[in-house]
């Protein structure tokens, strides 16, 4: 269904009216014959018909198209009153922004937040209603901390509620301890694996150093043997020189 034309300020072009409901187009679609309709109206019409309600030309859902851009712009610029005008809202805004306003309008009826309450109040009066709503929650006057949500809850057993709360706390504590335990075990396992890996790397490095030391010692021994051989050769050469 389209918007009630009585809500609009000033003249509304005939081309912006739905050919079925005669209201101002809402979520408009256009047939190939260029007649425009509200989306809900034309879809409902095509359930039982296969032609345009204006000129009887053949129409199916697949042939429907969005409204021409210039017509869409003209539609969005139309000014209209808020639907809560009779309740006191004096807002007049463009069709393009009316939905946004009405979602936040202080005169819109909204349901009470309290469970079990079926009252609907204007948004601006909600706080006042919540303060006196018979379904509002409040703490038990005996000090057990239980929140009373309904008239039946007034007769609740404080001891039982405290026991239940204690059980819940104990269960939660056990769960948290188990979680902390698992987390610590996981961290220890991770650190243990890291230490094992590090130890393996260090052992490999030590073995490599041992191998290098062994090669160095072998090289030193070879150099010392070569030096002794060279010294002996020098001594032999000196003797031969003296003999000559």
TrEMBL record:
Zinc finger feature spans (TRAF-type): 101-144
GO MF annotations, alphabetized: ligase activity; zinc ion binding
Coiled-coil stretches noted in the UniProt entry, renumbered to this chain: 199-243
Keywords, ordered alphabetically: Coiled coil, Ligase, Metal-binding, Zinc, Zinc-finger
Pfam families referenced in this protein's UniProt entry, alphabetically: zf-C3HC4_2
TRAF-type domain boundaries: 101-144
GO biological process, one term: regulation of canonical NF-kappaB signal transduction
SMART domains tied to this protein: RING
Positions of the RING-type domain: 18-56
The keyword Coiled coil is annotated on this UniProt entry: yes
Keyword match Isomerase: no
InterPro entries: Znf_RING, Znf_RING/FYVE/PHD, Znf_RING_CS, Znf_TRAF
Matches recorded under PANTHER family: RECEPTOR-ASSOCIATED FACTOR, PUTATIVE-RELATED, TNF RECEPTOR ASSOCIATED FACTOR
Name of the protein in its database record: RNF41 ligase
Organism encoding this protein: Ceuthmochares aereus
């Amino acid at each position: 269904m389209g918007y009630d034309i009585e809500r609009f300020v000033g003249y509304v072009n005939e081309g912006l009216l739905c050919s079925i409901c005669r209201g101002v187009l809402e979520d408009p679609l256009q047939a190939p014959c260029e007649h425009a309709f509200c989306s809900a109206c034309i879809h409902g019409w095509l359930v039982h018909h296969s032609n345009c309600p204006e000129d009887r030309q053949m129409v199916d859902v697949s042939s429907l198209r969005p409204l021409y851009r210039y017509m869409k712009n003209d539609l969005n610029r139309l000014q209209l009153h808020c639907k809560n005008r009779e309740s006191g809202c004096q807002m007049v805004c463009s069709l393009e922004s009316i939905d946004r306003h009405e979602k936040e309008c202080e005169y819109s009826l909204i349901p009470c937040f309290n469970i079990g309450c079926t009252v609907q109040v204007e948004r601006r009066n909600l706080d006042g209603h919540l303060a006196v709503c018979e379904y509002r929650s409040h703490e038990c006057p005996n000090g057990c901390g239980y929140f009373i949500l309904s008239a039946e809850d007034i007769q609740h057993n404080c001891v039982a509620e405290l026991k239940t709360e204690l059980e819940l706390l104990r269960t939660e504590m056990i769960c948290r301890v188990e979680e902390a335990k698992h987390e610590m075990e996981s961290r220890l396992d991770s650190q243990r694996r890291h230490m094992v890996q590090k130890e393996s790397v260090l052992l490999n490095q030590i073995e490599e150093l041992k191998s290098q030391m062994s090669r160095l010692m072998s090289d030193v021994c070879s150099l010392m043997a070569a030096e002794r051989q060279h010294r002996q050769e020098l001594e032999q050469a000196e003797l031969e020189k003296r003999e000559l």
